[in-house]
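Hi there,

I know you've been waiting on this one. I reran it after we fixed the sequence typo, so this is the corrected version. Both the input and the resulting structure follow.
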Amino acid sequence: MKIKQAIITGFMGRLRDRFAEYHEPRTIEEKLEMISRVKGADGVELIYPYDCEDLTFFKRCLKRYHLGVAAINVNIKAEPEFANAAVSSYSRKVRRKAVDFIKKGMDAASELGAHRITCAPLNDGYDYLFQVDYRRVWDYTVSSFKEAAQHNRDVILSIEYKPSEPRVQCLVDSAAKTLCLCQAIEEPNLGITIDVGHALAVGETPAEALCLVAKSPWPYYIHINDNNRKWDWDLIPGTRNFWDYLEFIFYLKEFNYKGWMTSDMAPMRLDPIEAFSRTIETTERMVRLANRLDSKRLFKLMEEEKTLEVLKFLEGEVLEKDRE
């Protein structure tokens, strides 16, 4: 397994929740300069369209700060027209704007050499029962993403699922449903973004969700964070769900993952540089732990249904050896 670690640019600027604002607004160059000071950061995930107004300038900044691009994050939820829905909107005009956003995001990714966009259709969903016709909004979602994917088959369109927020119920809310969506769209350049915190919040076991996706025809891309399984708090990964994160990375190792792990962590009350340094260091340590685990022995114990021996083995490898 060989990973590169990236940071979403938006988390280096002003952050908001329902009650307060945190940190100062910053230009894209200021954000990149800060990311360049995060130990272990190899690149960025930038937001389309808000970070992509001048790609020539952005490329110069990337070169100046020695950063790569993991993906373009196409935001189809912030515009006023997308308040009720974007790719699943009853309005053809709104769907057209959402699809155009995705297409232009793909163009930006291609120009920057990223060859991947990630898109989370979070306004596409509902708050009340009998609010939408589930059949129609699903069909609209399929047709919108299908048209967008056909725009440039050299760029992967990676769909990110989430159970809720800002809608009470997002249409694309789980790994399984995202796989159903990809199957319905039937385009070769689709992918799935697995956000560890989203998997936790929807009640998935992150490693199982990873295995489900990894066995499919579609490539996957990783966002890392943590929460209390009740809400997407975007905490430093492994701080609330240590064993889930270790198991997740263990299976990334089993699949010989070679790609980006991007920090989708919100340092609301923390110093951003220090918090992301901690995120990257924690992830690197988890990778070392996963590499240390004897896969052959673990799977043998699983096959023999020796659950207590598995627990004893893990505690010895992770806890006791760490104290040595």
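Quick highlight: The mean pLDDT is 96.

Best,
R. S.
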